[in-house]
Amino acid sequence: MSKTAPAALPASTPQFRPGYDTCTEVTAICRVEYTTLGYYPNQGVNIFLAMAFGLCAIGTLAIGVWKKTWGYSIAITAGCILECAGYAARAVLSSNPWQASAFKTQIVSIILGPTLICIGLYLTLKHIVATLAPSLSPFQFRPKFYPLFFVPADVSCLVIQAIGGGIAASAGKQDYQLLQHGNRVIIAGIVLQVVVLGAFGVLSAIFLLRAKKHFLRSFAFPESEATTLEIEQQQQQQTWQANKTKFFVGAMVGAYACLLIRCVYRIAEMAGGWGNDIMQDEPSFVVLESFMVGIACVLFTVFAPGVWFPWMSYSEKVNPGLMMRAERDMEGGVVNVGHEMGETSSGLEHEKVVGV
Q1: Domains and CATH numbers, the chain
Q2: In what helix (H) or strand (E) does residue 353 lie, and over which residues does it extend?
Q3: Residue 347 carries which DSSP code?
């Protein structure tokens, strides 16, 4: 929505520093250019984005309840709800850029939302590795290692950014150096988030390349001669070759790429400080922040693991390999029946991965 702010500041006006604590609407003194964003956000785009994230939240939650993919669905749904709130707040800013509560809401929600969405992404690698071939995991990491490392690391990035925001807020308008220190801490948190995402991408790529090479072999055995382990290996190969698995893995790779682009953009956006030229450029924000996170959420919703990769479910009914693995353990004198997924003896004996 395009609006024109009052052009001139009267010469008789006393010295005045516009800010969210002194301005409540656009006036001759409180011009839109003086806001952190520096523009009227596009109302139509932000309403569209708020609705899109809201639909993703509803869809992910519904499929999660239906297919019992609790951890993944809760993380993605919470992230989408925050994104929805953030863009609803930006829609409010389109009519009044000095609306302080809406500005704070969009800042907090749009920063926090992708962090929760990344948690859902991290959970997928755990189950892909556990289901297909834990023995191919990089550095022999057990599948449960991935969320145990990446989720706290991702949350730490958020905490660092929050600390930076607190430092910047305490600086106010008087202490410019302290404000800059707060901004540097925020950038450090975003850079660390890129490093964490990068490490996740490297480990995922190593595993997928190993799996591709591994499953080029044939695991077909005569039924009368095949051992339980050999039958399990054959099932793992069939899972790898299934179209649903290929679509699911492809969707996760696409979502990962979008989230990584978003984080790299955030570094550039924050590098110049609050109210810099990149931060005040709405088209780049919409393309590299809004659409990147939006595309990732659509992929997470449309290619929900409960439908496309059911091994992430708590339900035994949708995990065809669970009962065979339980029977195999019983034969060996070990009983592991229940909601324990991804057990295998392929190099990682009796590995347990709780389904989330």
Answers
A1: 36-307 (1.20.1070)
A2: strand 353-354
A3: S
Q: What residues contact residue 131 under an 8 Å CB cut-off, 6+ apart?
A: 236, 239, 309, 311, 321, 341, 342
**DSSP count for the chain of H helices, then E strands:** 11, 2
pLDDT of residue 51: 98
The position carrying tokens 């706290």 is 152
SS3 169: helix
Tokens read off for 36? 């952190």
Question: What pLDDT is stored for residue 227 in this prediction?
Answer: 67
DSSP 227: -
Dig out the tokens for 212 from the structure.
Answer: 């591709």
* Structure tokens given for 294: 């939006």
Per the listing, tokens 């924000």 go with: 285
State the Cα–Cα distance between residues 114 and 124, nearest whole angstrom: 16
CA 173 – CA 175 distance, rounded (Å) = 6
Q: What is the DSSP letter of 281?
A: -
C-alpha span between 189 and 154 (Å, rounded): 10
Report the half-sphere exposure of 111 (CA within 13 A, side-chain side): 24
pLDDT in tens, 13-69: 456 678 787 888 999 899 999 988 999 999 999 999 999 999 999 999 999 999 999
Q: Which two tokens stand for residue 355?
A: 């389904």
Q: Give the model's pLDDT for residue 339.
A: 35
- What was the pLDDT predicted at 16? 64
Local structure of 280: helix, strand or coil = coil
Please tell me the predicted confidence (pLDDT) of residue 172. Answer: 55
Low-confidence ranges of the chain (pLDDT < 50): 1-2, 4-9, 11-13, 316-355
